[in-house]
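=== Structure Prediction Worksheet ===
Name of assembly: unnamed complex
Input type: mixed (protein and possibly other molecules)
Chain count: two
Listed entries:
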Amino acid sequence: MSFTIQNALIPLASGYATVDVRIEADRIAAIAPHLEPVGTVIDGQNKLLLPGFFNAHTHSSEFWQRGMIPPYPLELWLAELYDFTLFSPEQIYLSALATAAETLLSGGTCVVDHLVLIPGQEEETIAAAARAYEEIGIRAFIGPLIQDASLTESIPSGGKLLEHQPYARTTQETLSLMERAIDRFHRPEAGIHLMLAPTGMQLCSDALFEGCVTLSDRYQLCCHTHLLETRAQQLLAQEKYGYSAVQHLKHLGFLTPHTSLAHCVWLDDADIEILSETRSTVVHNPLSNLRLGSGVAPILKYRQAGVNVTFGCDGSASNDGQDLLEAIKIGTLLHNVTDTDYRHWISPREAIEMASLGGATGLNLAEQTGSLTVGKKADLVLYDLTNLSLLPRTDPIGLLVMGRPASAVAQVWVNGQTVVAKGKVQTIDVDLLRQEIFDRSQWQTNRQSAMVQQVEAHYRSVMGLLDDES
Amino acid sequence: MSFTIQNALIPLASGYATVDVRIEADRIAAIAPHLEPVGTVIDGQNKLLLPGFFNAHTHSSEFWQRGMIPPYPLELWLAELYDFTLFSPEQIYLSALATAAETLLSGGTCVVDHLVLIPGQEEETIAAAARAYEEIGIRAFIGPLIQDASLTESIPSGGKLLEHQPYARTTQETLSLMERAIDRFHRPEAGIHLMLAPTGMQLCSDALFEGCVTLSDRYQLCCHTHLLETRAQQLLAQEKYGYSAVQHLKHLGFLTPHTSLAHCVWLDDADIEILSETRSTVVHNPLSNLRLGSGVAPILKYRQAGVNVTFGCDGSASNDGQDLLEAIKIGTLLHNVTDTDYRHWISPREAIEMASLGGATGLNLAEQTGSLTVGKKADLVLYDLTNLSLLPRTDPIGLLVMGRPASAVAQVWVNGQTVVAKGKVQTIDVDLLRQEIFDRSQWQTNRQSAMVQQVEAHYRSVMGLLDDES
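=== Predicted Assembly ===
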């Protein structure tokens, strides 16, 4: 199918132009003023056309827990999260749909789902997420969240001898599971990519990382992991390796141009040099880093070192939403307080490029998508510039990034297919989705996690927190 | 007119209850389950009822410049702002309507407009804003932005002898203007309050502050000012007074329980003690503080010292929107990275109270509004908990504060009057407003402010910024 977007505003290197954009099948075929219209004509007047953004790190199933977990640092927050009764594959399907819908309605055309697996139903979990993403029509990278250590091992021991439960699945079983999953679900031509995504150094053995590298090489897949999200993880890396986690991942061969690393809050200058040298991508999740008190990632330093940076919403239980424009805004403005020289600050146009081409680069897709370029895939978003939140007519990209767009996404295409039109998702029934989610949840407060009580005293002691209020 | 909201969810000290709420004239008359319905019945089922929030610091006219000013620190950003050709009273009217509309649709029922005055049309400016707020039906505090020094005086001299243009209006003329404005426009019974709002110590003489204190006493009005927003202002206070700006404002009698202070980023412990002792209110504007690189206000310290804190969006050219829920979210989460002990972090319920009762307290209205209390004014907001952004049904206040509510405000009453219903402003035609704003603006980029060029070299030198890229 072909169509032509007429009279849309697009950004040039400087300023804007009004152009027509012709899409043929799944690709951008032409961009120029006054094209001969081919196929359906889409009115782009008073609209801004941009490449789709990447929600480059999330955990879709956390949707079910959003709003619920009190303000805790990651290590205690995780204890709450894991305490929650999990999930049927049907719930996974619904939360993947909801995650995709919120991403699409905030300018995203691709989601990286670091997917929590239901124990004993691992393949059904991946199948459910893949089905959701294919139905709604978003481009998706699914990185099953794998580990081979139990949660208590993710907290530094502080020199104490602690006993840990063995993890439910062996390293080799996990790698076999991944290989089966790749075989069943990796279908880039349908917009569904699998990736190798060990949870992080705090919960994974060297053997698991190395096994992932092997599979990544064998199947030409991207890698993804959490990296140094918290100060506790920095302490743990010192305990575990005696040196930096980044150095260790480099030694394991995990850092490559198709590896993206969520968070990267606690890296030092030598670590940053390694990311630059290995051409790894940092996925900045500013909102969860604030919510969990993890810290402010040194994003301006990454950019100065030439490290590719893009944005993620992170899972909905640590944010607690999937508004990609909000992640881009806060991920851009937050760093203005980390460097007094405003000449280093991220401009709105740079933010847009980080969110689009930066995301594509980290997923080895920069040749395929991430910019308004003839020949690239038509992953496109049209913003309504007559929406109150994008008025007055000043600098549309300035307002899109630094403002608070509300229902401003008019139309979205992924792979040349219409996914959103007139501000509504067209491919699924969102009202039905809301009803299903409503029916499967119940307002509640005052959850008390037994697991938090188990780990809190140790956490406070290792992190040097005084019990001034107990 | 009376009405009854049936079966709404409201927060209790712990957990939630489903109740009916009866409003008689402008007041809450009863809150209890299964009330005998009186007047119109409003369906509150699957909705959360909260007191309206306060957008406790903004500058409505900046709406016209939003999206436009590049990432600059306050002092250079102001040079861009002032370079913009101002405004007719009609534009002031439109931007006040737009500011109020965005505030209402994000949970606000009261706005504090630190109003930029059109030179030579000062009273017309105030009249236009007052007319807008009365028409749309939001409770409004208008603090005409007054000063008696020119902009260049707001940048520390660094010991250099600088020449400044005299300000266009004398101190006495400004105070006379304020007295006329109070006489004409201060009508609390109509929901329009005037306040005394000198711009800040960086642009105001002692005589202007003292004149404001006198008028505040004479007419029983609130006071408002910017306070130590930037490091440059802290340096300037040292140059100007030889000691802290907070001490100085205290000596001038400006700090009282009905004084609210926007920003308060650069205060030390002794300053915080003064705010506590004088029972002044801090208005936290987290988004503009990030956008302008001003810093992170020590909000957790304020709370520990017992200082009342509430939230503002700040003007739309430094944010660049008026989504109060966004200001509350970021103003809550941001501080988790400033204190490793999560027991000091602000909980969602505390954030809600800061935004409602905290706002009322700073405006000397805590007896009148700011909580769901029988006898108080009916300034109420009903949130639709079936909205996708407030699903699943977990902890509604957790999700409202830490999530990203999108079009979640269903109904708003101010003073017992319906202002928003079914998610739409009822009192004005927002589509017509959008059209007017569209017609009066033009997309543009690459503005070059001559004023920035004038002050930038001096600013960089005083702030110790190296010209590494020039």
